[in-house]
Amino acid sequence: MSASRLPAGGRIDRDQPIEFHWDNRKLKGFKGDTLASALMANGESILGRSFKYHRPRGIMSAGVEESGAIVTVGRGNRRDPNVKATTQEIFNGLQAKGQNAWPNVRTDLGSVNGLFSRFFSAGFYYKTFMGIPPMEWGKGTGIWMQYEKLIRKAAGMGVASREPDPDIYDHGHMFCDVLVVGSGPAGLAAAVAAAEGGLDVVLVEQDFEIGGDYLNQSSTEAERKRSSQISALKKLGARVMTRTTAFGLYDYGVAGLLERVTDHVAVPAVEIPRQRFLTLRTKHTILATGALERSVAFGNNDLPGIMTAAAANSYVNRFAVQAGQRIIVATNNDSAYSPALNLARTGADVTVLDSRTSLPDNILGLLDTKGVSHRAGTTALNAVGKKGIASLELASGDDGQWAAGDSLTCDLLLVSGGWSPVVNLLSHRGVKPVWDKDNLCFVAPIFDEPIQMAGSANAIWGTSDCEASGNAAGVAAVAAVKGTGMNNVTSAPGAGGWETPIAPLYEVRVDNKKTKCFIDPQHDVTADDVRLAHQEGFVSVEHLKRYTTLGMATDQGKMGNIIGLALMAEAMGREIPEVGTTTFRPPYTPISLGALTGRGKGAHFKPLRRTPMHDWNLAAGATMTDAGLWQRPWYFARQGETITEAYIRETITTRETVGLVDVTSLGKIAIQGPDATEFINSVYSNAFAKLPIGKARYGIMLRDDGIVMDDGTSWRLSETDYFMTTTTAHAAKVMVFLEELLQTRWPHLQVHVTSVSEQWAGSAVAGPKSRAVLEACVADPASVANEALPFMGVIETSLSNGVPCRIARISFSGEMAYEMYVPSDYSESMMDLLWSAAQSFDGCLYGTETLGALRIEKGHVTGVELDGRATIDDAGLGKMASDQKSYIGSALRSRPDLLRTDRPQLVGIFPKDKTEKFKAGSVLCSENKVEGHGDGWITAVTHSPTLGHWIGLGYINGGYDQWSGQTVVAADPVRTGNTNVEIVSPHMVDPSGERMRG
Amino acid sequence: MTRFSAWSVFRNGFKDQSGWTRQWRDPEPKKHYDIVIVGGGLHGLATAYYLAKNHGLKNIAILEKGWLGGGNAGRNTTIVRSNYFMPGNREFYEHSLKLWENLSHELNYNVMFSQRSHISLLHSPGAIDASARRYNTMRLTGTPDAEIWDLNTLKQNVPHLNYGPDSRFPIMGAAVQKRAGTARHDAVAWGYARAADALGVDIIQNCEVTATTRSANSISSLTTSRGEITANKVGFAVAGNTSRLWQMAGFNTLPIESHKLQAFVSEPLKPLLDQVVVFGVGGAHFYISQSDKGGMVFGGDLDWYKSYAQRGNLPIVQDVAECAISILPCLGRVRLLRHWSGVMDMTMDGSPFICKTPLDNLYLNAGWNYGGFKASPASGWYFADLIANDRPHDTIANFNLDRFAQGVSMDERGAGPDPKLHG
Amino acid sequence: MIRINCPYCGERDHSEFSYGGDGSITYPALDASAEEWLEAVFQRENIRGVQTETWHHVSGCRQWLLVERDTMTHEIHSVHAAHEGIAKVLEAGK
Questions:
Q1: HEC assignment per residue over A571-588
Q2: Across-strand partners of A397?
Q3: pLDDT value at position A484?
Q4: For A19, what's the count of Cα atoms within 13 Å in the CB-facing half-sphere?
């Protein structure tokens, strides 16, 4: 290929020269060039290497269907592998490199693979690499995994950066009446018609210029039309977006759009996102997505210097690059003649081979006047050349019976094997395209979606027909959106538009001549591979695709799929429609994960929930820990303390004097209404019908299936008003369940539930001095006296600073303790008061670690014990469940297996040797059988300052009675090994509860 | 059947691949079979293979309404592991893993089982303890490759994860199963098909069951798009269509709800990630590995609503991308090549069914949730055992429809009777 | 993206809602037999086609809705408040 830049013409801006780098060499291009056009203008012909055989790859197209010129753009943490050179705009300083080659794409040692291509047929890897060759001796996966290492290294395409992507990406949301995809003659006409009809129009174009095929036409008339349509759209207020791909169509008129904002900018402003992912909701969609020209399978059809006819036309007209000087055009349809004439006009020596035997006289006459030679009934058989095409062996004949002919020298071969309308987006909606036997392509069937196909996306080939088709689609969209009926809708042109019918031409081969004909040039899938797939029974198109990997490369089969289908049809002796086509999946072109992610990465990956006293806790020395989405204080280390030292001190202090802990993350639900008591009594498994006003009660909620869902407390504030707390983990779930019950199952109950988790901030005050602390903080100390606020009592009062508060005397720690809640905005003032008072008693602040230590000592359960499998009996709380009433879960709670007495039951665990520690997650096994599933497991452990040794909670089959006095092994082979333990009552400290009743 | 080997590949290289024959026949359906398996996915194919191989049965057909492996065999992220801990599940999946380990040799088909390690990231001390229980159970039940890694070991083995200070959920360690990994999903379907065919099983594609003829206690005949077929015994293995077929058999309900799950693959890249990495924290759920071709293969949660449509919607695409970038920030510029979805039969406890039914000659294999791929060898093995012997093997004693009435828990996640929560 | 026309809030993305389950289930009385509860809690018709199902406008008005939707095409045929009384009031106000 001896390409060169033309001295004039094209849409490039010769006043804006651009310097860029290709394989570390500095090259020049112009504003308006793609990387492909600029490299071509610089005479670069080998831009890539194929996947399997590392064959040289040149530019094959001028768009998103590119399967050869796949390169790496950028460096360091902005390295972008697998970029199609045909869609990358150049800019000053652009760094582009060849990939999948060593030392470079021009001379690649990997091409040695080609020597073994006779063995590397479709699916050969399923037949070997299993064991020791040649007969695959051996067992297991060891040998395969050795091969796999080599295969993985050889496979892949580009190298991704190992560093985090530094760029930012934004998400946006859009609404419109009609989305027009594609801005060619049909898309522009459609958008104008829809906008003139008063619709809110969004027109998206993946290219950096509006115009589609207008851009590839050299006539002034095309440019006049293009610019007048654009200004019409501007006037009408349509939103026109370039560099924006509609990558997928989803349910309910939702389109995924990707806008490339700075991929063409040398030094983008830091605040500008690299790309935007936009979710567009539209009432109607017009797909003016165009059509892609197909290649033909003939020998060495993958050599650099072979491209589609339309690509060369685009390069010469739009980019002012003459792709070759001695050009052969091989076609089976009329569309390649215009490129042939355009290239001849700019000085090339052009020969047209047409596989059809009779050609229209007017075309022949035109060719003659322009000095273009032509041969009918002739086509390409085999390209010859090492790193690029040097000559072409011809075949002649007709109706698929080809005979080898003579040979022509050339430096560029243009191929047109017909056109495939881009129906991909329609396919995303589950609409299966049908075969149009006149135009030899898959087209949209009659379908029931608010979508119109327009222009060549509907197999309409002529520019003016495309304009008319777009106009009709736009008018139809107006009728559909406004519901005005289709009276004014002009009939759209039908498919077609060529003077001479296209002739089938998918593969050219002659007897007695072996050729390598590629149908997926990126993956090196050949025509023989398709036949082999058929020979081995992979006749379904989906099997064909998977067995040969046809269509699974980064071009997603845009160029080669139809040829593959045609060859399979031929092998099966069937027609193409009987073979069918594979389903196109989104995205239409590959889109970056960064754009899909947007800002939701790093620290913003998931929402972070902080309590209103987060900063207060931090200022007081808290180390935080994650609890679901919440951050809670973990421990408050004093000078030099480790976490263990800290929680031991906090536990001792709380048991001896007083401790404060932020409990704001608990779920809080206001349950109000005349039927609130009946409701709450039906939801909890234990009795609530007679809870007096001013009292709180611990409650256990079951799921419908009788397994424990959650536990918490409910405070009766008045006849009709309860304040429920849930665990932190299940706050949302409980709220949803209560709403579901009231709205769907028990609509007769007059109850309102409101989540007030965010309204109230809370602290537990625990320890012998807790009442004294409260007395120092509330407005009326008498209100918290033992008689006024007994165990499980509730009061609503105010703090000494006037802040309203509600207090319940409830205990999770086992000490005399209170939970106090104030409106969230006053949480810090509550903590200031409480902490100041607690300090006067040498109290402490504590976090979740001490919360755990205190509750484990007491045998109080949390989510690790109530794990979604435990029954209320398993957790040792069965006695609380009411047998006087029915409640959620009561029916299924008594299924046979849930009543087995040998079920795992909650127990306490001591080490045999009190100096030893053990870990949660250990499996409990009887001493003589440390294997299998064991008899139980440990849910939680802590060092118990009260007892002076490590203790744990867990479950063991049959419970305490069955195991007391025996040595049990806590097996932890993945971490610490085995520890001998004994099973004790789960109530390890103060089993009678005297301390908390105080 | 031509035996596959380096030698046969070599020989065929010199004779233009002319020595290869159909990998399985394309027989016309017979009027009668001893056993008909409905469903030509991985489970149905494996079942037919083991019926012929382990039980010496001959007259067997698989009826597939489309093409082999066209259902969830095609929508999966190819992960194979056995890190289950509940009795029954544990033994079942370990048996499956052992079958996987020699499957390429057994089938003489390279299913590319790559035992590259399955790494579950752990983000809190509580998560480490919970995993320890699971992995301790694995060790104690004969799975020596279960390990808990500390952060340093993890960093050395998987260098490109987000260990930085901006991580929303800092990684503290990992639970690792070293024998776990990935396999080539299509090859498993084709390998079983070829091996079953060689043992005489009729694999009949494009044959949809449209109705059944029933007596009080049995199915006497299946009406198919290719004619009426009778069978002594019938097995259903039709993920994504279980409820419909069940209703064709004259029943009404099952403890199953069908949901869709998307899968994702990126453009091919040179090796970047050598293991399977998964995590679940803060309500997120994500799994990723790199295929031998170089594509990053990944997935996350269900689309969260019941669906039989094999196409997904954008919210989960975004969720999954966020997960990917949060754990592998270097993937920001890597491009998504394709996303698609499959229909998962989600059960009320996240565990499957391999069981007898109220009909004497009908057997059910269903309810694989997300986990069917790794299960397929053992699923076929035990289903064949059930059909051949008309009684469940001890290992799958609880894989029955009655377990909910009994209150038997097979709920690995403890999520309760809400199918969508058992991902 | 499914778009759900919430009777309270108008048409919104389905990502604002959470899918509940089969809306045709009538949950038995709390004191009903275990058999009735087993049927309601565990057994599903799992319709392929138009089914009635519950959705919760969890990131909106927090109302539970009864939605008739095709599980094959995702097309929604109707949306009503799940609470009969509220549904009646809304219908009357139309």
A1: HHCCCHHHHCCCCCCCCC
A2: A402
A3: 84
A4: 4
User: Is there a contact between A857 and A946 (Cβ–Cβ < 8 Å)?
Assistant: yes
Q: Tell me, what amino acid is at B113?
A: F
> Which residues are CB-neighbours of A387 under 8 A, at least 6 positions away?
A45, A46, A56, A106, A304
Calculate mean pLDDT across residues A708-729. 98
Q: Residue A12's domain is classified under what CATH number?
A: 3.10.20.440
Selected residue of B245, B301, B307, B422 to mutate for chain C interface (largest C Cβ count, 10 A): B307
pLDDT digits (tens, 9 = 90+) for B320-372: 999 999 999 999 999 999 999 999 999 999 999 999 999 999 999 999 998 89
Which residues in chain C are contacts of A430 at CB distance < 8 A? 73
* Percent residues over pLDDT 90 in chain A: 93
Q: How many of the other CB atoms lie within 10 Å of CB of A514?
A: 10
By CB atoms closer than 10 A (0-12, 13-18, 19+), residue A829 is middle
Kindly state whether residues A623 and A720 are assigned to the same domain.
Answer: no
Residues 8 through 27 of chain C touching chain A, CB cutoff 8 Å: 18, 20, 23, 27
Q: Are the beta carbons of B256 and C39 separated by less than 8 Å?
A: no
A352-366, A851-865, A963-977, C16-30, range with the lowest pLDDT = A352-366
Quote the CA–CA distance of C89 and B339 in Å, as a whole number.
Answer: 43
For β-strands B60-63 and B202-204, DSSP reports them as parallel
Of B13, B321, B409, the CB nearest to A119: B13
Q: Report the distance separating Cα C54 and Cα B170, nearest Å.
A: 37
Residue A494: CA atoms inside 13 Å, Cβ hemisphere, count? 5
What lies within 8 Å, CB to CB, of A269 at 6+ separation is none
Q: Specify the DSSP element, H or E, that contains A742.
A: none
CB contacts of B145 in chain A (<8 Å) are none
Number of domains in chain A: 5
Q: Where are the alpha helices (DSSP H) in B328-371?
A: none
Q: What CATH number should be reported for the domain holding residue A915? A: 2.40.30.110
Q: What is the rounded average pLDDT of the residues A337-359?
A: 93
Sign of CA dihedral A777, A783, A784, A785: positive
Residue A490 confidence (pLDDT) above 70:
no
For residues B392-404, average pLDDT = 98
Q: What does the alpha-carbon distance between residue A417 and residue A765 come to, in Å, rounded to a whole number? A: 81
| Residue in chain A lying closest to B84 (CA) | A933
Question: Which domain range does residue A709 map to?
Answer: 667-755
Rg (alpha carbons) of chain B, rounded to whole number: 22
Q: Are residues A177 and A279 in the same domain?
A: yes
Q: What is the mean pLDDT of residues A357-373?
A: 88
Please state, in angstroms and rounded to a whole number, the distance separating the CA atoms of residues A459 and A497.
9
Q: What is the pLDDT of residues A285-310, one digit of tens each?
A: 999 999 999 999 999 999 999 999 99
In 3D space, the residue among A63, A552, A551, A560 whose CA is nearest the CA of residue A319 turns out to be A63
Task: Extract the tokens encoding A805.
Answer: 């508060």
Question: DSSP letter at A775?
Answer: H
Tell me the pLDDT tens digit for each residue of A788-813: 999 999 999 999 999 999 999 999 99
The token pair that represents B253 in the structure block: 């309900």
CA proximity to B174, closest of B144, B135, B202, B207: B135
Q: What is the pLDDT of residue A486?
A: 65
Is residue A339 in some structural domain?
A: no
ipTM for the whole complex:
0.98
CA distance A275 to A477: 30
* Domains of chain C and CATH, by start: 3-24+37-92 (3.30.2270.10)
A953 and A811 co-located in one domain: no
pLDDT recorded at residue A1: 58
CATH of the domain at A835: 3.30.1360.120
How far does the CA of residue A881 sit from the closest CA of chain C (Å)?
Answer: 15
Judge if A721 and A796 occupy the same domain. Answer: no
